[in-house]
Amino acid sequence: MDARASEGGLAGAAARPAAGPTAAVLAALSLSHLLNDLIQSLLPAIYPLLKQSYRLDFGQIGLLTLGFQLTSSLLQPVVGLSTDRRPQPFSLAAGMLLSLAGLLLLSQAWSFASLLVAAGLVGTGSAIFHPEASRVARLASGGRYGLAQSVFQVGGNAGTAIGPLLAAFIVVPHGQGSVALFALAALAGFVVLSLVGRWYRERLALGAARPRRTGPGSGAPLSRRRIVLTVAILLVLIFSKYFYMASFTSYFTFYLLHRFGVSVQEAQVFLFVFLGAVAVGTVIGGPIGDRFGRKVVIWSSIVGVLPFTLALPHANLFWTVVLTVPIGLILASAMPAILVYAQELLPGRVGLVGGLFFGFAFGMGGLGAAVLGELADRTGIEFVYALCAFLPAIGLLAVFLPRLGGPLRSA
User: Is 408 among the domain residues?
Assistant: First the structure.
């Protein structure tokens, strides 16, 4: 992409009124999200390589994921709250530089401790990126908040899906040092986010990104207690989704290797199938929520996946791969709807909502990886999948979510 053309497109978008979604900005955010999550997906994608090279057990694999996810989880709400008060347009680009540093360290790590530091650097970069990028996506939405979040999030899902595929065909054959090649992705992300930062700074100068706080939705206001309870329910739903997702992102390749005896490259391709379905589900969830309401999507996406998760531990290789498609598709459709629902519940707190929910999601993913890793060491990887099959049943709590009024028209 030509830098001047991109800069001109983003600058022109800043000058136009937000009558509809700002396509150039949303595309730039989606692309940068792809690059960001591609980088962070390399770590779990090369776990089999790291396990062999450093003689790690499943518990240490889980600690690596926890190091990345927990760093991101703890920092994101802090970053979101801070940028609600004082937006930082170029923090997005700065976060990408931290991810770059983590990548380079990962490529040359000499011990388990240095692997943990590399994971923490990538997690910190992610923590800076997500809350502010989510705010910019809402600002560029033109009122179609679900669509904007889907476009933004699908970039991340695509990056997460592509990462294992690239790892299978680049890192696995050429060794851990080839991770440094992905520094080019971080540099590209830095350039794109610098352009987005300039657009965002211009919008801030126009006063377009200053939050206007009103009640949740357009209906009767909810009590503080009901709002707190609703946020807690949403976080529990995130827990069920990301704990289950951790069983795939961290251990699906091991499950396939152990149960069906496939090669590492075949396992990475099958993981790509699941992650590709996750990306498609993310695209679908936001627009459906715009049209039919967030609660409908949240309810159906989390509970609707239960029959497929229950069948997975009993399937052969062919049906295991087939079942991962509806599981990824249905489960992923919830996240854009949950995020926009929370933004409507807490207007004027876009950064805090983004930081809290992305951070909690990453934290649950990390905690899930650590817990499931220890469980796999003690009971076997197949038992982990048999147990996790019941996690989506927690989605029944969605029945207690209040129905909010029409979508907010505030940034």
Answer: no
